[in-house]
Amino acid sequence: MVESSQQLSNRYDNDGYFVIRNYFNETQISSLRNVVLKFHELWKADNEEFYETEAFNSSLITGSEYLSPEDRTVLFNFISSKKVMEVVDAVIPNNPAFMNTQLFFNPVNPKQKDFWHRDCQYDYDIDDQMKVISETQVLHLRLPLFDEPGMEIIPGTHKRWDNEEEYNVRQEENGKVSSDSLSGGKKIALSAGDLLVFSADMIHRGLYGLDRLALDILIFDSASDYVDYVDDDCLPTQSMINTMTDSRLFQNTLQLKSMVCPQ
């Protein structure tokens, strides 16, 4: 790792994100890309109308609907790999848990624009959004599978509420729309092999263009109440867990699920 765990932790704590350039080699990205493209092609065929009219992402990549057990195992072994876990541990050192995977791509509709948001705005009202950003922790690990325009983020908004400009744009108030520019925006172009780590609840937007295809791994702090967001089908079987060098992410999720729904 180019920087120490403490340095990465400090950067995330201060800014809500960090980038590690060329973190994964071509062999690792090629293997990941091969599996993800299988999922993507099958998902597109199965969701043709949605894909062609409004889609810009899909989810549940590690599920069984589109991938074989062998391909799912490739994903699980990647997610639980030493390189991924070193980064996760730097940001969430106590009982990190697996939530989901998402795949981000360019919308087919050329009129569709990228938009500013906090992930929590889709589940919480304003008062609860304020509470969520100060109390809970959800992490995106973004792996671009091809070179792409990347992300635009507002550093520090993982710990503070919107200013007036940000609020009006994100909430589309006072004549603003969520695709408007924000003065505090920082654009981060990404290349295949880079790793972008950012808070789900900071103000951010994906940037469309090039051959955008980015795999996001979502991780949460076990102390947060997010286990209900986890789809059982996206978790590994015991035989898959047995192949992992470090299965903590999945074991922690399974333990949380057993506490909610005891056998």
TrEMBL record:
Keywords: Dioxygenase, Oxidoreductase. InterPro entries: Phytyl_CoA_dOase-like. GO terms for molecular function: 2-oxoglutarate-dependent dioxygenase activity. The keyword Oxidoreductase applies. The keyword Oxidoreductase applies. It comes from the Bacteria. Gene3D superfamilies: q2cbj1_9rhob like domain (2.60.120.620). This is Phytanoyl-CoA dioxygenase family protein. It comes from Vibrio amylolyticus. The lineage of its organism: Bacteria, Pseudomonadati, Pseudomonadota, Gammaproteobacteria, Vibrionales.
